[in-house]
Specification:
Blueprint lengths: L4 E6 L1 H5 L5 H9 L8 E7 L1 H8 L10 E6 L7 H11 L4 E6 L3 E2 L3 H10 L4 E3 L2 E4 L8 H11 L21 E5 H6 L10 H11 L4 E3 L5 E4 L2 H14 L1 H4 L10 H4 L5 H23 L4 H31 L1 H4 L6
Helix pairs in contact: 6-13, 9-13, 12-13
Length: 326
């Protein structure tokens, strides 16, 4: 009997970033409000990482099937691992999770329900967590605003949220569809955005589920100097990679002032989007107002790091490439 859903987890983040131990992710999966005997877990990574995961026998008790996929080191980038996991999976429904992601107890049941109810793709909100702070802490909620809130469309209402993009660490999708529209394998972080554009143009039925929540691993140094610096650095090649990428030609013509103008505009957009994002996360009106200065400060810090990344790509692309690595 085939599993009802296959959860694909890559080892790339553990080997490259080590933001949180994968054992925490596996423990959270065992607490899902979903029959685990109907779940296949597909772990994909290097031979060394798969060997380490294979030692975590107790973490896999109760799952219907476990598959450990060791891949060629020359084809072990983040997006390549996810594609290979999809190819190896047995179920018709796929759930993608990073090895440092902490899914809420309702994550898998919400995702599967959305797909079995007719959606082709199910997207949910992402937040952060660290070794010292939970996903519901003020700092983690604020830091998530500039990083992850763009997956919620700005045209959404609180009662009917719609997806504006997707992230590879929190995604449900029909396997047949993912095999037709695989993750772009370029070693850049915007592969998920390109996939979203492709799926939208193909007419896929996209669903946003507020209970499909994942807390991604976090350190302030990685968040500021790697993630958001990289996001700015990749702007120039990213917007040339797909015709659906949002572009502002007038700003693009102002080569050396564009980074500041563009990122300042994103701060203004974040300020408005915070209240929409907060409602999706279940925050009350009072807490959203209290946390607004903190969220706005996080937006300013993240967007200025992105501006720095844009200037680095403009002025010294070769020397800054390592800092912007994914």
């Amino acid at each position: 009997m085939n599993p009802r859903v296959s959860i694909v987890i890559e080892a790339y983040n553990e080997e490259q970033n080590a933001l949180a131990p994968p054992s925490e992710t596996l423990q959270a999966l065992r607490c899902q409000q979903f029959p685990l005997d109907q779940v296949e877990v597909v772990l994909v990574g290097s031979a060394e990482q798969i060997e380490c995961w294979g030692d975590l026998h107790s973490e896999f008790q109760g799952f219907g099937t476990l598959r450990l996929i060791a891949v060629d080191p020359s084809h072990s980038h983040y997006w390549e691992l996810k594609n290979q996991g999809a190819q190896a999976a047995s179920a018709n429904l796929l759930a993608f999770l990073d090895c440092d992601g902490l899914p809420a107890p309702s994550w898998l049941s919400t995702l599967v329900s959305a797909l079995e109810s007719g959606a082709d793709v199910s997207i949910g909100p992402s937040v952060y967590r660290s070794s010292r702070r939970s996903a519901d802490s003020a700092w983690m909620l604020a830091m998530a605003l500039p990083s992850w809130s763009f997956t919620l469309a700005r045209t959404s209402s609180a009662d009917s949220p719609q997806p504006g993009s997707l992230m590879g660490h929190n995604l449900g999708i029909r396997r047949e569809l993912l095999l037709q529209h695989s993750f772009p394998t370029l070693p850049r972080s915007y592969g998920s955005s390109i996939l979203f554009f492709q799926l939208a143009r193909a007419g896929a039925r996209l669903s946003y589920q507020r209970e499909q929540r994942v807390a991604h691993g976090f350190t302030f140094r990685w968040w500021l100097s790697r993630m958001h610096f990289r996001r700015g650095w990749e702007t120039y090649e990213g917007r040339l990679s797909d015709p659906s990428w949002p572009r502002i030609p007038v700003l693009e013509s102002m080569k050396y002032v564009e980074p500041l103008l563009l990122r300042t505009g994103l701060v203004a957009r974040d300020a408005r989007h915070w209240f929409r994002f907060g409602r999706v996360l279940g925050l009350g009106s009072g807490r959203m107002v209290l946390l607004f200065p903190l969220a706005l400060g996080a937006s300013v810090a993240a967007r200025m790091a992105e501006a720095a990344g844009m200037y680095a790509a403009l002025l010294a692309p070769n020397t800054s490439a390592s800092q912007a690595r994914f």
